């Protein structure tokens, strides 16, 4: 079976799917690309050490069908980042993104991620080094600030520094990161969202492309943000409820959806599964990203249960997915007017 016909869309940051550790691997990205041809999708964060010294094909390899796809790097050494950016460009990525938002202890110990909010000059040096090394767009994903920083001052300082260094876009998670006392998971929920701060940033930096991230749980919310900023990035909602992505192209780009139902999209991943199984992959590596594909649809629970119990077996193949989908009524169809607000409850 051939993969779906696909001409990559031009890179647009109007809507993107956030880089998420242990989630947005190449199988997840392939699945998401079946659901939306226009969204910009990101790799998991890859550290400079891993890229320079690890298995590059395993870390950076991707299917051209995923395009447009960006790589997110974690690091703080300008020259190491420049070298990694060149490597990523050679692999064919569409954008290089620098992580200045991850709050984990391990990342802090490596002097990258959110702790770099305290070092805007160093972030600017990293951006400048990568810009000099590659012809791709170089972007930064950051927080409003960290710990006791005043978000008005911290975000302004970082923005001014990276804009002067030639950054192509700034993706702002509209929360501070509290590096002491909160886990990475708590840092995704506990610090309050402040969308107005991101809106003000766009107003004061009209020439810089600003993408808002954090708490974007629906395409309606994403669309509302687009009245004030250049792009919206969805994270956990896109992963945990991927059915939402089938509405991205018609709702946010005025383009046809790739499929008229999520069940059709799910069946379209079978050729990918068959190719990967032939290369030694286990079925669960793909289907673990599909568990939230149905909600409030008759058979959704049976679908999840079947995948959870059968896809992990050593001999599991595409027939397991087909059997799981047989539990689900194909009710989540796209209507001709692309009014998809209630697509999950059809």
Summarize the structure.
With 346 residues, the protein is of the alpha/beta class.
Q: What is the CATH C level class of the largest domain, in words?
A: Alpha Beta
Q: Quickly count the helices.
A: 17
* Backbone shape: globular
Structural class: alpha/beta
Identify the CATH architecture of the largest domain: Alpha-Beta Barrel
How confident overall, as mean pLDDT? 92
Strand content: 5-15%
Distance between the termini: 30 Å
Cα gyration radius (Å): 20 Å
- What would CATH call the homologous superfamily of the largest domain? Aldolase class I
Largest sheet: 8 strands, parallel, barrel
Helix content: 25-40%
Note poorly predicted spans: 333-346
Q: Total strand count, please?
A: 8
Strand order of the largest sheet: 1-2-3-4-5-6-7-8
Task: Briefly note the CATH topology name of the largest domain.
Answer: TIM Barrel
Secondary-structure element pattern, one letter each:
EHEHHEHEHHEHEHHEHEHHHHHHH
Q: Tell me the domain tally.
A: 2
């Amino acid at each position: 079976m051939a993969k779906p016909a696909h001409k990559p869309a031009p890179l647009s940051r109007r809507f993107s799917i956030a880089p998420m550790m242990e989630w947005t691997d190449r199988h997840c990205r392939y699945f998401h690309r079946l659901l939306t041809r226009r969204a910009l999708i990101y790799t998991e964060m890859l550290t400079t050490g891993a890229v320079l010294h690890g298995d590059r094909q395993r870390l950076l390899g991707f299917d051209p069908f995923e395009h447009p796809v960006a790589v997110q790097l974690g690091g703080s050494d300008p020259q190491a980042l420049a070298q990694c950016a060149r490597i990523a460009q050679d692999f064919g990525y569409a954008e290089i993104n620098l992580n200045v938002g991850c709050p984990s202890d391990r990342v802090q110990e490596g002097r990258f991620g959110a702790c770099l909010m305290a070092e805007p000059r160093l972030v600017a040096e990293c951006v400048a080094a990568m810009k000099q090394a590659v012809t791709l767009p170089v972007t930064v994903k950051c927080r409003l600030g960290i710990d006791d920083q005043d978000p008005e001052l911290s975000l302004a300082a970082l923005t001014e520094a990276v804009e002067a260094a030639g950054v192509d876009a700034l993706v702002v998670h509209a929360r501070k990161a509290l590096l002491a006392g909160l886990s990475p998971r708590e840092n995704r929920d506990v610090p309050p969202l402040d969308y107005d701060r991101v809106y003000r940033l766009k107003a004061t930096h009209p020439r810089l492309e600003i993408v808002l991230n954090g708490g974007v749980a629906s395409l309606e919310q994403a669309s509302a943000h687009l009245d004030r900023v250049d792009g919206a990035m969805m994270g956990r909602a896109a992963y945990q409820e991927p059915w939402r992505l089938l509405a991205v192209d018609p709702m946010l780009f005025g383009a046809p959806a790739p499929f008229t139902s999520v069940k059709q999209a799910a069946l379209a991943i079978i050729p990918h599964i068959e190719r990967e199984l032939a290369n030694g992959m286990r079925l669960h590596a793909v289907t673990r990203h599909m568990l939230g594909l149905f909600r409030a649809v008759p058979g959704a629970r049976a679908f999840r249960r079947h995948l959870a119990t059968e896809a992990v077996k050593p001999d599991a193949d595409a027939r397991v997915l087909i059997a799981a989908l047989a539990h689900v009524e194909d009710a989540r169809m796209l209507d001709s007017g692309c009014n998809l607000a209630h697509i999950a409850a059809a």
